[in-house]
Design brief:
By secondary structure, the protein is of the alpha/beta class. The protein is about 40% helix and about 15% strand. About 50% of the residues are buried. Bound molecules: pyridoxal-5'-phosphate.
């Protein structure tokens, strides 16, 4: 199998597997226990936490571990808006389901919700943000790198508009962490280990001092009472090792992805159109369409290639992607689109082979 679904998840880095191994084996103590082995686990978690915070790269805040980025986003939105209603939440039409479903929840409990459209390039207009984010707005959420089309929203500018209006800014940096620099500005940042070659089952919410959302998960008072539940040293250490690698390999990974992108464009030829901006884009995401293509059939014809129709969550539903619809694609165009995601461990050779197969399968459909 050739793995080209880096937006769905990424392969575990060998360094991460090695770092996690002792914590899955002999070092099983509860990190919240007072004896030596417990304290050793707690110390390892703190080292991991500081690596995650360093990789996020923003000053004046701390990272709290969660079970996923989905949890981090739910916490940031629900814990900032609260359950009483009456607040104003602004977000974008192309956000992840974790944000859009929270927006629906927010509306259900009586908050005002504004969902801003994006242009054909997938980017929100700052004028539209300025018009929506006025005094009395409480929270603005925008993704850094889109999971379906890779476009990079102007997060710093959106954060500045939010702050001028007295609102907080939440950035879903799940696809951005380790791939593009997170600009200064957000008050809350959601991240996920498994998108940066770390383990599944752990995420983090970075929060600027003074912007802590209300606690969502009550219990034993772990994470300074902010998020209860016994932490997994193995998962935290894995996340920390992945974050350290992402920081150290940032330039190398970036250069590799740029090379693969150029190779992909040369190999694919002119029958394909790229969905979303090519300039303001993380180039490890190639979301492309071809007129008349039945993308679902192409995937079925190329089962040994791990590529997708869009987000892993939406792929199974049969519904056209909300992101592709938001950039103005017709249902037919959305259904003729495939997402190819590559990164650190993709070789030029395997990408070339996969694209040749994709081209051949698309040609066969035309015949
Ligand atoms: N936000 C974005 C942009 C994502 O791509 C994903 C995962 O697909 C999530 C949030 C949710 O992350 P997790 O899998 O950690 O819940």
């Amino acid at each position: 199998m050739i793995y080209l679904d880096y937006q769905a998840t990424t392969p575990l880095a060998p360094e991460v597997v090695e770092a996690m191994a002792p914590w899955i084996g002999d070092k099983f103590a509860n990190p919240h226990a007072p004896y030596t082995s417990g304290r050793e686990a707690a110390a390892a978690i703190e080292v991991a936490r500081s690596e995650v915070t360093k990789a996020i790269g923003l000053a004046g805040g701390r990272s709290v571990f969660t079970g996923s980025a989905t949890e981090a986003l739910n916490w940031a939105i629900k814990g900032t808006l609260g359950w009483k209603g009456g607040k104003h939440f602004v977000t974008l039409a192309t956000e992840h389901a974790a944000v859009l479903d929270c927006a629906e929840w927010a509306q259900g409990v009586g908050h005002r919700v504004t969902v801003l459209p994006v242009g054909a390039d997938g980017l929100v207009s700052l004028d539209a943000v300025r018009a929506a984010v006025t005094d009395g707005c409480d929270l603005v959420a925008a993704m850094l790198v889109n999971n379906e089309i890779g476009v990079i929203q102007p997060v710093a500018e959106i954060a500045a508009i939010a702050h001028d209006a007295g609102a907080r800014m939440l950035c879903d940096a799940v696809q951005g962490l380790g791939r593009v620099a997170i600009p200064d500005g957000p008050d809350l940042v959601a991240a996920s280990a498994h998108k940066i070659h770390g383990p599944k089952g752990i995420g983090a919410l970075w929060m600027r001092g003074g912007c802590e959302p209300e606690t969502l998960i009550h219990g034993g008072g772990q994470e300074e009472g902010l998020r209860s539940g016994t932490l997994s040293p193995a998962l935290a250490v894995g996340f920390g090792a992945a974050a350290k690698l992402a920081r150290e390999r940032f330039d190398e990974d970036h250069a590799h992805v740029e090379d693969l992108w150029s190779l992909a464009l040369e190999t694919l030829g002119k029958d394909w159109t790229i969905n979303g901006s090519t300039d303001r884009r993380y180039r490890g995401n190639l979301n492309i369409r071809r007129e008349g293509l039945d993308a679902a059939r192409l995937l079925a014809d190329c089962r040994d290639l791990a590529i997708s129709l869009g987000s892993a969550c939406a792929s199974g539903s049969g519904r056209p992607s909300h992101v592709l619809k938001a950039i103005g694609l017709t249902t037919a165009e959305a259904r003729s689109s495939v997402r190819i995601g590559f990164g650190r461990y993709t070789s030029a050779d395997e990408l070339g082979q996969a694209l040749a197969r994709i081209n051949a399968a698309a040609e066969a459909q035309r015949a």
